[in-house]
Amino acid sequence: AGWATHEPIGTVGVQLIDDVRVGVEAVLEGSVRREGDTVRINAQLIDALGGQHLWAERYDGSIQDVFALQDRVIGQIVAALAVKLTNAERTSVELVGTRNPQAYDAVLRGWAHYRLGPEEETNKAIALFEQAIALDPEYGRAHAALAAASWRIVQSTWESTTEGGYQRAFDRMQEALAKAMRQPNALAHAVSAEVLSKQGRYEEAFTEIGQAMALAPNDSEIHLSKARILNA
């Protein structure tokens, strides 16, 4: 069975090769489709004000070579658009977090379930994040994602929290977050910030969410975390 995602990848301030600067932010939108071991990535740049397409490209590859494919896609997009990455963005691109394609795939599939929101989908996400960790115990993004999903359950009134489920979810969140913070990524900082905020440790929470924003300034989930902290 195949799966697909389609969503904005991020926003970029683009300087074209002829030094004519686009006067507005542009949206880099993409879709990823998988069928068996074949992966197809479509990317397109859209003018944020006018809505017209500025550039588009398609990339095909194998799931077994997904990291090489990712590097090729990023490299060609950056080269074609002459985008200047910040140091934080460059670090984020370079630190994939795992060299195990099956673990990487499990996190992507888990995150698709996580973003849907309901209890059933969150539990599906947790199972996939745990699968990724079993495949690569040092995969920081998988630990951070597991912490995020567990934290959602902790804050819910779902059936998952009954009969000791709250404590299991809280303990799982703490353990996953501690492992994620060994080599912290933006998501790990964001979850840490939300936990600190709930504990009333606002100064530390703002430091953590600031680090998350610096690492992933275009990540909508990080902005949502900051909004929740500000609303605490």
- Along the chain, the helix and strand elements come as EEEEHHHHHHHHH
Helix count equals 9
Gyration radius from CA atoms, angstroms: 19 Å
Round the mean pLDDT to the nearest integer and report it: 81
Pick out the low-confidence regions.
1-24
Q: How many β-strand runs? A: 4
Decide which structural class fits the backbone.
alpha+beta
- Measured between the Cα atoms of the first and last residue, the distance is 42 Å
Largest sheet: 4 strands, antiparallel
Quick one: overall form?
A: globular
Strand arrangement across the biggest beta sheet: 1-2-3-4
Give structural notes:
It is a single chain. The protein is an alpha+beta fold. 53% of the residues lie in helices and 17% in strands. The protein has helices spanning 66-81, 87-94, 101-114, 119-135, 140-154, 165-180, 186-198, 202-215, 220-230; strands at residues 3-12, 26-35, 38-47, 53-62. A 4-stranded antiparallel β-sheet has the order 1-2-3-4, covered by helices on one side. Strand 2 (26-35) and strand 3 form a beta hairpin. Helix 3 (101-114) packs parallel to helix 5 (140-154) and helix 7 (186-198) packs antiparallel against helix 8 (202-215). The longest helix has 17 residues, at 119-135. The chain is globular, with a radius of gyration of 19 Å. Mean pLDDT is 81; it is low at 1-24.
